[in-house]
């Protein structure tokens, strides 16, 4: 395991970027199946040996992979999704709260309507009774 001995030189960075430009699948993290992982490991070891032999800093494969210049598209997508995910979650929470508030208002309105209907029903029942009484008295 090669020790980390400082920052990469401009030449090492150029070599790193050129290598990743030549090996786009490695750069964007598309080597995911078994053969791809073997190929990715081989390519990273090749790159690591090349970079370490250039006379600048020396790093392990893992240290070169964590180089701030090397952020895969999939890592960028995960970061975006995570950020977007928190936005989506907060929006969903907001929508759910609004839905719950509407439901409460609707339930209150329905309760008010039911109460009014019950009052109307009672009045109709009373009027019906009075009508029957009136008709009974009229027919006598």
Question: What would you say this structure looks like, in words?
Answer:
- By secondary structure, the chain is mainly alpha-helical.
- It is rod-shaped and about 125 Å long.
- It contains five helices and no strands.
- Helix 1 runs antiparallel to helix 3.
- The chain has a domain of 70 residues.
Keywords:
140 residues, mainly alpha, 5 helices
Average pLDDT over all residues: 80
Computed structural class: mainly alpha
Strand content: under 5%
The number of strands is 0
Radius of gyration: 38 Å
Q: What is the element string, with H for helices and E for strands?
A: HHHHH
Distance between the termini: 116 Å
Number of helices: 5
Label the overall shape: rod-shaped
| Helical content (DSSP H or I, runs of 4+) | over 70%
Any low-confidence stretches, pLDDT <50, length ≥5? none
The biggest beta sheet reads: none
Secondary-structure topology with pairs:
Elements: H1 10-22, H2 24-27, H3 34-52, H4 61-65, H5 73-138
Helix pairs in contact: 1-3
Short description:
With 140 residues, the chain is an all-alpha fold. It has 5 helices and no strands.
């Amino acid at each position: 395991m090669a020790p980390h001995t400082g920052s990469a030189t401009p030449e090492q960075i150029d070599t790193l970027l050129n290598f990743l430009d030549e090996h786009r699948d490695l750069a964007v993290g598309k080597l995911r199946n078994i053969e791809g992982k073997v190929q990715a490991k081989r390519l990273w070891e090749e790159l690591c040996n090349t970079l370490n032999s250039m006379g600048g800093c020396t790093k392990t494969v893992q240290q070169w992979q964590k180089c701030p210049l090397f952020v895969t598209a999939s890592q960028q997508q995960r970061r975006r999704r995570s950020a977007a995910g928190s936005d989506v979650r907060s929006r969903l929470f907001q929508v759910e709260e609004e839905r719950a508030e509407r439901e409460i208002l609707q339930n209150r309105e329905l309760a008010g309507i039911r109460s009014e209907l019950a009052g109307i029903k009672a009045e109709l029942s009373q009027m019906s009774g009075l009508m029957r009484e009136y008709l009974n008295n009229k027919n006598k």
